[in-house]
Structure formats: C-alpha cells, structure tokens
Write a structure and sequence with these properties.
The protein has 130 residues and is of the alpha+beta class. The protein has 4 helices and 7 strands, in the order E-H-H-E-E-H-E-E-E-H-E. It has helices at 6-13, 17-25, 42-58, 102-108, and strands at 3-5, 32-34, 37-41, 69-80, 84-91, 94-101, 115-120. The strands form 2 sheets. Strands 6-5-4-7 form a 4-stranded antiparallel β-sheet. The chain has a 3-stranded antiparallel β-sheet with strand order 1-3-2. A hairpin with a 2-residue loop joins strand 5 and strand 6. Helix 1 (6-13) crosses helix 2. It is elongated. The model has no long low-confidence stretch (mean pLDDT 85).
C-alpha cells in the first residue's frame, strides 16, 4: 500500500501544507505518525479526493454541461489569432491549455486574471504511474 507524507498529500491535492494539516486535524482524512512525520495512507487519500470532488461539484450547476472533469482556476494567458485563440488556465498545480475560436473568447469576455473553469471531456484518457 502506498502512503504519503502530509507535504506530498498537499501537492497532490493542490493545496498548501497548512491546509492539508488543518483538514487532517479536522478529521477529513486520517493520518498516522511515523518517525515524526504525518503519513496518509493512499486509500484514505483517494477516498478524501473523491469526497472533495463531490463537494466541489455541489457548487456547480450540472444542468449546463455534461463535462464532469472541472478544473476551476485563473486565466493566465490568452493568445488571439485571426480566427482561433489559445487560453491558459492555472488550476491548482495543473496548467490547462485550450484551443478555441477567437469569437468564443470574446463572447465569454475572457481576460488574464479572471476566474475560469476548464472542463475536460474525452473519449481517450491516458494515465501514467506517478
């Protein structure tokens, strides 16, 4: 069974170590001590991630989209072409890049620094072992 330090868990969750410690202290996921380090067992961290994902989904109105893989973040870059555009969204530790039409960017009023949610829907997802 894989286990993680509280710092590794924080990086995987996309939060600060302090936030991960507060969540653990509040009982949101269990930890144990091992040589003066707080350790989270992999299955416990996975269960917490599923729960946290469900909580985040409650804040959204799912009737407006069929894409369930939502990455809320901030727009960090926009490159406009004559017809197409490239939009970058930093969502926690994830940099999401989307290619869309210039018209869509203008209709959405996207600007660097504003909040946005990158949604991913794909028929092919590749998973690499970390």
């Amino acid at each position: 069974m894989e286990s993680y330090t509280i710092g590794q868990a924080a990086r995987l969750l996309g939060v600060s170590v302090d936030t991960a410690r507060r969540w653990a202290d509040a009982g949101r996921f269990p930890t144990r001590r091992e040589a003066n380090r707080r350790i989270v067992d992999g299955p416990d961290l996975a269960a917490f991630c599923v729960e946290a994902g469900r909580e985040g989904a409650e804040d959204e109105d799912p009737s407006h989209t069929s894409a369930r893989n939502a990455f809320p973040g901030i727009v960090t870059g926009i490159r406009l072409g004559d017809v197409s555009a490239q939009v970058e969204v930093q969502a926690g530790p994830h940099r999401m890049v989307s290619l869309l039409t210039r018209e869509a960017v203008e209709e959405l009023g996207l600007e660097v620094g504003m909040r946005a949610t990158a949604r991913v829907k794909s028929t092919s997802v590749h998973v690499d072992r970390g």
